[in-house]
Amino acid sequence: MCSESPPTNKIAAMRRMVIVTSVVLGCFTGGTAAAPIAAADCSRLSPWPSFRDTADSAHTVFIGTVSQIALQDPDAYSPMFTLVVDDVLRGELSDQTLSFRRFHTGAPQPFCPEDSVLRVQTGDRLAFAPGAALDGERITVVAFITPSEPERGLMPGIELLTEDEVRAIIGAPPASLGPSPSPIETAEPIGTAQVVDPPLPVDCRTEFPDLTGGREVTAEELAILCRDAYLDSGVDRVTAYAKTQPDFAGIVVRRGTDPGWTIWFTTDLPRHEAELAPLMPEGKTVVLLPAELTLRDLEAVQELVSGDLPTLLAMGMQIEEIGVDPERNAVVVGLREDSPGALLILQQRYGPHVITEGVGAT
Description:
Blueprint: H1 10-15, H2 51-54, E1 61-69, E2 80-90, E3 97-101, E4 125-134, E5 137-145, E6 159-161, H3 163-169, H4 204-207, H5 219-244, E7 248-254, E8 260-265, H6 269-276, E9 285-290, H7 295-307, H8 309-314, E10 319-325, E11 330-335, H9 340-350, E12 354-358
Parallel strand pairs: 5-6, 8-9, 11-12
Antiparallel strand pairs: 1-2, 1-4, 2-3, 4-5, 7-8, 10-11
């Protein structure tokens, strides 16, 4: 389990924008936004750490495919995208759909840290290794997988590997031989507190018949698998309930020492609280908060802004990102340089639930 530290700047705040099917990947060690550096050298970008040299030290390794980017141009390299997990080669990953917002590895970035972020195209395949060791720190290393083609001018030094090369680096068999059992990762993730869960009121092998994947495990490994399966089983129940409510306005998964969900609705919080109570697994809590616009309303505004992007660009707005932030119940337009004039124009066109933030050039 993991939890994000509070954002220290506007760029970090942009990375925390999530929607109901997303997970904040910053939970992985190193997945945080860098703080601005005064007079940073932006004549070049910081180099990317080597996947070949560090991935084998990671606690989790997985491969995924970019299913959607935030920009209308399909050939653009976007810093905001959705990734569908194809295969977990090491460790465990409960979420199969991950949302990225200006992702940083967590490695030192001596040059232009605000712009040294991951950028991808729709269809790209990537390998991620959260928890890799570099100079005494834990970071998340990334590599593109052929036939994807990274834009190395935007990500200097990032590696392009075959899937079999990725597997060989961490000691996994080639893809042609199929997946092998992954070791159970019991180490506490970097930057999180150890959570001791109460005894679970279920027979794990009956409740979760595919828990071990057909392989022999120790009692300790079974306890870990049981705990994670039971706690994670609530995700489907809670999110399924929330998404069926017409007044649903957004959800954030909380991890770390206070695991659970924060959910926004526009009406009738006591009713939602009563209906969610029997869906909650032990060890997790739900916090319900009021909102003015539903998630569907916010997404409709987001579509309007995205559809008008050529017009807005022609007006001189240097728009880099457009996303929904349930915590602020707003559509956030990321501008290369924020300005009161841009905010005024956007709110006149789309209403008060559109806000702007300066995110730097991408």
